[in-house]
């Protein structure tokens, strides 16, 4: 992903790019809502080294990579 502190902004942008809703909660965690109503959270100010890997793995479990690939193929087809 990106540098240690900016990965949160990059992941937030990737989630928004596929149409997911991303909000900042009171506790300082981003809350992501997917198209099917499911969701997950990740920290806006990560406290440990594993935060990035855990957040990215959670996004992938919800289909972020597949949606990005589908969007890329649709853009190429136009």
Considering the chains and any ligands shown, give keywords for the structure.
3-stranded antiparallel beta sheet; 78 residues; 3 strands; alpha+beta; 3 helices; globular
How would you characterize this protein structure?
The protein is globular, with a radius of gyration of 13 Å. The relative contact order is 0.17. The termini are far apart. The model has no long low-confidence stretch (mean pLDDT 90). The chain is of the alpha+beta class and 78 residues long. It has three helices and three strands; from the N terminus they run H-E-E-E-H-H. The chain has helices at 7-17, 50-61, 64-77, and strands spanning 21-24, 29-33, 39-43. Helices cover 47% and strands 18% of the residues. Strands 1-2-3 form a three-stranded antiparallel beta sheet.
Question: In brief, what are we looking at here?
Answer:
By secondary structure, the chain is an alpha+beta fold. It is built from 3 helices and 3 strands; from the N terminus they run αβββαα.
Query: Strand order of the main beta sheet, please?
Result: 1-2-3
The major beta sheet can be summarized as: 3 strands, antiparallel
| Helical/strand content category | alpha+beta
* Number of helices, where a helix is a run of at least 4 consecutive DSSP H or I residues: 3
What's the average pLDDT?
90
Taking Cα atoms only, what radius of gyration do you get, to the nearest Å?
Answer: 13 Å
Give the DSSP E fraction (strand runs of 2 or more residues). Answer: 15-25%
Euclidean distance between termini CA atoms: 28 Å
Shape: globular
The amount of helix comes to 40-55%
Q: Unreliable stretches, pLDDT < 50, 5 or more residues?
A: none
């Amino acid at each position: 992903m990106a540098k240690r502190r900016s990965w949160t902004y990059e992941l937030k942008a990737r989630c928004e790019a596929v149409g997911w809703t991303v909000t900042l909660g009171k506790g300082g965690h981003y809350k992501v809502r997917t198209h099917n109503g499911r969701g997950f959270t990740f920290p806006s100010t990560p406290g440990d080294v594993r935060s990035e890997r855990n957040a990215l793995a959670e996004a992938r479990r919800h289909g972020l990579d597949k949606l990005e690939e589908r969007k890329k193929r649709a853009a190429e087809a136009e």
